[in-house]
TrEMBL record:
GO terms for cellular component: cytoplasmic side of endoplasmic reticulum membrane; lumenal side of endoplasmic reticulum membrane. This is Uncharacterized protein. Pfam families: Peptidase_A22B. It is found in: Endoplasmic reticulum membrane. It comes from Sphaeroforma arctica JP610.
Length: 67
């Protein structure tokens, strides 16, 4: 059976054993530990900006004057 890009992506997504979402309570200060409204951060919300910042850091270091 040939593997297309979409079937490989599905297989990786199904077999990836890591937290894929982080829930932060929105109303923690008002309701304490029984807060029921949550904000969702997905893995892409954390990883993509992190990769972008890492690339910017490498760019900054490559452009820095040599001592």
């Amino acid at each position: 059976m040939p593997h297309t890009a979409s079937t490989v992506q599905v297989e990786v997504a199904k077999s990836f054993e890591a937290p894929i979402k982080v829930l932060f309570p929105k109303d923690l200060l008002e309701n304490g530990w029984v807060a029921n409204q949550c904000a969702l951060l997905g893995l892409g919300d954390i990883v993509i900006p992190g990769i972008f910042i890492a690339l910017l850091l490498r760019f900054d270091r490559s452009r820095a004057p040599r001592e």
